[in-house]
Structure to design on (742 residues):
């Protein structure tokens, strides 16, 4: 009994730091923000209970909110598939046996390492500037340069390109998935005379589908929470014409610029709900396209 | 298998414990060091009089690099003269500054001295974040050479919640060479908004921009004042004008300026990487409407020299007012309010310090400092002093400070101006939208 107690004590001791951190920085803020979402709270005075008013205001009286929701959806639904596609293509290229492959893997992963950083976003501002590389490239192809920061649609696409460029982490996961597909399948298919595309769609994609599912879910969640690039590239404004006012940026503005912490908390909970719904949709559709070997192909 | 796992875990645990105890040991010793230092310090200060007490002040401001540089020098100067005071600076750009300040305020962690802007002063003062400076004025802060008017600029209700660091006035900074190319050897003495549009047209015909546009929250307020109104109601509970036609007239004019090419299009302006790219700086524009303290910076980054002109009339004196460029406030949670007031006093009244500041935070409020600087300042700065002296004679009182929520109203009106410039909304619709939304922000 005594040794048991002692063992337990050690256990609690070891788990203590995590539990304390989890309580202080995750659970308590979550509970608090849930409470704030039903209040009018300006950070200085104590919160005042307003019931569902924040949620009502969001969908009925705040066109800016609906706009930020819209562009966030564009950002996610254009950005995530493109990013996954890109990651998969590069992962397949890097899966070939070549001597320089190690170097390339590192190079392609680098953008993700420095991913959310301010430095990258600032660099992005230069790349897409009036005399930036992108416009020079466009002009050399005979296309008119684009005012990336002046045109709301272009500005959003610039953010999407930035997110695609940071495909490294999903690429690594794809790479691991590709490595685990037995070579014998491809050999057998080759013997049967299958083309590259036949092999790709009949072996690679099904075998990789659990990994695709994982990446799709993680990237969607991550994309919804994008903040830093939008903040830096628009210099905190979400402009031009709110073209880069992503959800988290607007949430941040409401909370810390306009002192509407209650409203911002309500926004956070709506975002949680949206992410939860989207994730469950992805999971629900997954049984039609994800292939688990352990379930006998079902 | 199991056994080896246990051994492995055991080893990891030992390593971890060793690492922990090592850390703990270090912390303890370093903690002891600190403690002994602290007691020693306390001993010192108890022995000496309060003037030698060790004081650490946190001070926060916004600005650009030149301001950061000289402010750090001023701090160094102060620390040299007050060896017992250590000052920890926290500085940022305008946007970052306010986003950092809000959570600090919520956590009662505001720096001891906070640079404040007119548009946020009420918000922070009314929420009991700032200390009333009145008890320090006349004692810690020497006000012998400062006019009551200047001090009152920081008044919210009955208290002074920010000490005025300098005054500004709206003005037009133009390039005289381009003006004479347009056929004006002298700037029209009293120009009106009609003449503004006429000269703009001449500039366009000659291949120049006329200006960079009129920043909505600043110049719409000026325009309203010319018409005997104000942007905010005196008690801050709503807008200070009833007739939306004023909004429509002003923004129609702004829109026409963009359409005629006198003002760059908003997408062009958004693409500019920094002030160096500004058309006015590059000699492609006639001038720029801005606050008087921005004149020196404009001359610094451009090759050409500029001149001052007042803003367009009629009723310039009704429209113009002397604005406290910025304030230093002391936070309510500060435990060193007196020491903070001492530093503010130094910042405002010390001539040596102001030789570093050189009016970047507005024309000094202390007449003694102002006189001492007149021989020191550059030609550009002298023009600023001269203009502000003129504006002092040709302006009316500023009125109540911006109400709480002004920050949000400013973002609202600037956003609407952007939409008008992009042709997304008509000035008429913008006027209605502005009224509804601003009233709801201010009414809260």
């Amino acid at each position: 009994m005594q040794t048991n107690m002692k063992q337990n004590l050690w256990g609690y001791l070891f788990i203590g730091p995590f539990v304390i951190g989890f309580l202080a920085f995750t659970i308590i803020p979550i509970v608090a923000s849930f409470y704030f979402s039903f209040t009018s709270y300006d950070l200085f005075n104590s919160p005042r209970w307003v019931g569902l008013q924040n949620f009502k205001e969001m969908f009925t009286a705040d066109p800016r909110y609906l706009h930020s929701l819209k562009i966030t959806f564009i950002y996610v639904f254009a950005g995530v598939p493109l990013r996954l596609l890109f990651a998969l293509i590069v992962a397949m290229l890097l899966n070939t046996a070549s001597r320089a492959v190690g170097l390339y893997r590192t190079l392609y992963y680098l953008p993700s390492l420095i991913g959310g950083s301010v430095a990258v976003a600032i660099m992005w501002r230069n790349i897409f500037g009036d005399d930036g590389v992108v416009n020079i490239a466009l002009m050399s192809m005979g296309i008119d340069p684009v005012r990336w920061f002046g045109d709301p649609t272009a500005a959003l696409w610039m953010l999407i390109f930035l997110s695609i460029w940071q495909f490294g982490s999903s690429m690594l996961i794809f790479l691991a998935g590709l490595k685990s597909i037995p070579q014998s399948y491809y050999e057998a298919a080759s013997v049967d005379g299958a083309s590259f595309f036949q092999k790709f769609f009949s072996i690679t994609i099904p075998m990789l589908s659990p990994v695709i599912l994982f990446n799709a879910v993680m990237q969607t969640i991550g994309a919804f929470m994008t903040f830093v690039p939008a903040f830096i590239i628009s210099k905190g404004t979400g402009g031009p014409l709110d073209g880069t006012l992503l959800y988290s940026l607007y949430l941040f503005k409401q909370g810390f610029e306009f002192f509407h912490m209650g409203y911002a908390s309500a926004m956070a909970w709506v975002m949680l709900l949206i992410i939860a719904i989207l994730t469950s949709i992805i999971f629900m559709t997954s049984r039609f396209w994800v292939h688990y070997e352990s379930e006998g192909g079902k | 298998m199991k056994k080896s796992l246990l051994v492995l875990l055991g080893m990891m645990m030992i390593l971890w414990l060793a690492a922990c105890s090592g850390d703990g040991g270090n912390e303890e010793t370093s903690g002891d060091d600190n403690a002994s230092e602290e007691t020693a310090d306390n001993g010192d200060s108890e022995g000496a009089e309060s003037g030698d007490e060790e004081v650490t002040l946190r001070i926060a401001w916004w600005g650009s690099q030149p301001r950061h540089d000289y402010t750090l020098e001023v701090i160094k100067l102060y620390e040299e003269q007050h060896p017992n005071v250590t000052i920890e600076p926290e500085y940022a750009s305008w946007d970052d500054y306010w986003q950092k300040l809000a959570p600090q305020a919520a956590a009662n962690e505001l720096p001891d001295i906070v640079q404040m802007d007119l548009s946020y002063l009420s918000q922070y003062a009314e929420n009991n974040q700032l200390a009333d400076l009145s008890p320090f004025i006349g004692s810690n802060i020497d006000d012998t050479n400062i006019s009551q008017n200047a001090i009152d600029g920081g008044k919210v209700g009955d208290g002074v919640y920010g000490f005025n660091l300098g005054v500004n006035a709206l003005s037009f900074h133009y390039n005289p060479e381009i003006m004479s190319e347009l056929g004006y050897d002298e700037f029209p003495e009293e120009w009106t908004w009609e003449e503004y549009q006429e000269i703009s047209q001449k500039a366009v015909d000659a291949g120049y921009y006329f200006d960079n546009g009129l920043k909505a929250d600043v110049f719409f307020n000026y325009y309203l004042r010319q018409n005997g109104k104000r942007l905010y109601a005196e008690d801050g509970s709503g807008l200070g004008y009833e007739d939306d036609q004023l909004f429509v007239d002003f923004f129609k004019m702004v829109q026409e300026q963009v359409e005629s090419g006198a003002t760059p299009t908003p997408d062009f302006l958004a693409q500019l990487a920094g002030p160096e790219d500004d058309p006015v700086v590059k000699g492609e524009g006639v001038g720029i409407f801005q606050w008087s303290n921005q004149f020196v910076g404009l001359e610094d980054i451009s090759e050409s020299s500029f001149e001052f002109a007042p803003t367009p009339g009629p009723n310039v004196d009704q429209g113009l007012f002397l604005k406290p460029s910025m304030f230093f406030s002391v936070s309510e949670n500060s435990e060193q309010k007196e020491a903070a007031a001492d530093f503010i006093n130094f910042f405002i009244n010390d001539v040596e310090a102001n030789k570093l500041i050189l009016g970047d935070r507005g024309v000094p409020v202390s007449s003694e400092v102002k006189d001492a600087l007149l021989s020191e300042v550059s030609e550009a700065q002298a023009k600023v002093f001269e203009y502000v002296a003129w504006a002092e004679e040709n302006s009316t009182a500023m009125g109540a400070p911006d109400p709480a929520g002004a920050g949000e109203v400013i973002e609202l009106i600037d956003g609407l101006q952007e939409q008008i410039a992009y042709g997304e909304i008509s000035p008429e619709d913008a006027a209605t939208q502005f009224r509804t939304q601003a009233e709801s922000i201010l009414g809260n």
Summary: DSSP finds 18 helices and twelve strands in chain B. Chain B touches chain A through 30 residues (CB under 8 Å).
